[in-house]
Design a protein that fits this description.
By secondary structure, this protein is of the alpha+beta class. It is built from eight helices and 16 strands. It folds into three domains: 216 residues, Antithrombin, subunit I, domain 2 (Antithrombin, Chain I, domain 2), CATH 3.30.497; 99 residues, no CATH class; 29 residues, no CATH class. 20% of the residues lie in helices and 25% in strands.
Length: 426
């Protein structure tokens, strides 16, 4: 019998989410590729963590590997996040089943879900889209999956944030990005970090080598905050290695005024152009006892991204999660759909981002057979009959009565109103 998530609370745990999530993020971003992108590995990981306790045997082992921790621990970590929501990062999860059914096989698993996870019949498409808008501050207006009669169970997660910087950026000419990169000549205005309030340093990492790091903090609410970390390496470094370095450094971004352990002294680096910086030396009055002072400045562009990601690659865990839930329903080989919609925008005064992740467990498809499809083409004169329906008090006198009829022999181009989007109501 699968163990519910509540059996693995984080009380007393030494495991944290950081390492498993960094590992999962590497998998997800590798499959998205090197293009401009935004995603929420956490949004996908949370759904897998909720589903994993339904798995047994080899499926449990497979999900443990994808999650980076055992299923009970993962469920406990997810529950801890979802049942204590962050003031600046609204979150929501839901588990819906096919309307008109009551899947008793899921009862034990659903009983262990976080108390904040919504359950019930699957909404229609408009309801799913409304759920996405409600739980992403209106930043995502369409749920990434489509309701079809094949859906047995659907899981969803939503994460969002919209914050103002505690210390807004200043503006600078695009040329401040420097002549070595391609963007300086394309942008008229970029962002310059204020003299105080932001953090910046050069860090030594593994495969990414030395990287430039900038951290901007949000205005806190109820003691909770958000730090957005930007990490740039030599352009020759693979994007996956730079993303991994960013996850590695993210803990240091929370250390306030403490110097990160992997921070490089500017006096250990050569003057001139570096992989993502330019280092100069000036003779000026300094307060440091040894007469050596270090100062970091940062210039960044504004940016935004909007994306949808297919999540059915077996390495991302969703096919295994679907088989685990299908097993509870007595479905031997269920289908699966899994997608994530994500967006983000980084500007002078703040940052906003959102992601909605959906997984649908589908009814097993019948075995392959033969299908013939006829496309009916009304390409010559044809007849039309308009027939009334009348179900007032059963079957009324108008039911089945032909009201209009026609012979279509002179077709026309669509009217102007037919070409509008949205349609003009008749």
């Amino acid at each position: 019998m699968p163990t519910g998530p509540r059996a693995g609370t984080v009380e007393g745990m030494t495991t944290t989410l950081h390492a498993p999530l960094a590992r999962y993020a590497a998998r997800l971003h590798a499959r998205i590729g090197d293009r401009h992108q935004v995603a929420s590995p956490l949004g996908a990981w949370l759904l897998l963590a909720l589903a994993a306790p339904a798995a047994t045997g080899g499926l449990r082992d497979e999900l443990d590997d994808v999650l980076g921790v055992d299923a009970v621990t993962a469920a406990g970590l997810a529950t801890a996040l979802l049942d204590a929501p962050h003031p600046l990062v609204p979150s929501a999860t839901a588990v819906w089943h096919r309307p008109g059914t009551e899947p008793a096989g899921l009862d034990g698993w659903r009983a262990g879900l976080p108390r904040t996870t919504a359950t019930g019949p699957l909404p229609d498409q408009a309801g799913l889209d409304a759920w996405a808008r409600e739980h992403t501050l209106g930043l995502i207006d369409r749920f990434p999956l489509t309701v079809t009669p094949l859906v047995l169970v659907m899981l969803a997660s939503a994460l969002a944030t919209r914050i103002s910087w505690a210390d807004p950026f200043d503006l600078a000419p695009g040329a401040a990005l420097g002549g070595a990169g391609p963007w300086a000549g394309r942008l008229e205005r970029v962002l310059r970090a204020p003299e105080y309030g932001h953090r910046a340093w050069i860090a030594a990492t593994g495969p990414a080598g030395d990287v430039a790091v900038h951290a901007a903090s949000a205005v806190e609410r109820d003691g909770a905050g958000l730090v957005v970390l930007s990490v740039a390496a030599d352009p020759a470094v693979a994007p996956g290695d730079v993303l991994a370095a960013a996850y590695q450094l993210s803990g240091a971004a929370l250390d306030g005024d403490d110097l990160p352990a992997d921070r490089r002294s500017l006096f250990d680096l050569p003057l001139g152009a570096g992989p993502a910086w330019s280092l100069r030396e000036d003779k000026v009055p300094v307060w440091a006892r040894d007469g050596r002072e270090e100062r970091h400045e940062a210039v960044l562009p504004c940016w935004s991204a909007r994306d949808e990601h297919e999540l059915t690659d077996p390495a991302l865990g969703f096919p295994a999660a679907a088989r685990a839930l299908g097993g509870l329903l007595g479905v031997a080989d269920p289908g699966v759909e899994a997608r994530q919609a994500a967006m983000a925008r980084y500007g002078r005064y703040g940052f906003e981002a959102a992601a909605v992740t959906g997984m649908a467990v589908l009814e097993s498809l019948p075995p392959d057979g033969v299908r013939r499809t006829a496309e009916l083409r009304f390409g010559h004169p044809y007849a039309v009959v308009a027939v009334a329906t009348d179900r007032r008090g059963g079957t009324g006198p108008w039911h089945g009565v032909p009201v209009f009829s026609a012979w279509v022999a002179e077709p026309e181009e669509p009217a102007t109103d037919d070409l509008t989007d949205p349609p003009v109501p008749w």
